[in-house]
Amino acid sequence: MKMITCQVASLTPLTEHVYKALLKPSQPVNFSAGQYLNFVMSDDDKRPFSIASAPGAQLIELQIGAFGSDSYPMQVIEHIKANTEVTIEIPLGNAQLREESQRPLLLIAGGTGFSYIKSIFEYLALQDSQREVMVYWGLRDPSACYELAQTATTINKLANGKFIPVIEAPNDEWQGRTGMVHKVVMAEVNNLADYDIYLAGRFEMVAAVREDFVKQGALIDHMYGDAFAFI
After folding, report:
1. What was the pLDDT predicted at 68?
2. Does some domain include residue 98?
3. Domain that includes residue 7, residue range
4. Are the beta carbons of 109 and 200 closer than 8 angstroms?
């Protein structure tokens, strides 16, 4: 783990409440797909965010959901806006992609938990992986969607990739899957025990998903998520 200074390359809104930050590190960084970093506000204030970019990318991408004017993540957004350089601590986390496995993959995220699985499927696409990769992304409503076409394009580069966005509260225009994302997975995936399962989202969501999946046969030793260290 290293403390790295980064130039702020860009900060752009993805939705009303989600921002994409691109950071250019001052030296090469090594991390595994699915790890996270600490955004250093001060020596005593370090805030974790999943890395959305794949290993080897020139820029480190963060996707930050900020829903309040003085919220924990909005303070990070304001820090980025106010500084041309920021400091990160990288890499962190033990829920990274298990590259030695050849089992099919289920990548499941709610909201900006998407950052975690994005790093994984982008890396798999760059590696020309032949594994089955099913990506389920749960979102509150259509206004919370971002980069759907770009995501589909990346996943379509995989030999056996499939992208399924799921909207909990759809409008009349939404044509895709609806409901709670993990319930859709449980209805569509026949044998969860066959899969390596990677999960990201709010802690209470991940806890509920883990419990329901295990009841339906998923193997706890083949389920991964940083939230598991806290629930």
Report:
1. 76
2. no
3. 2-92
4. yes
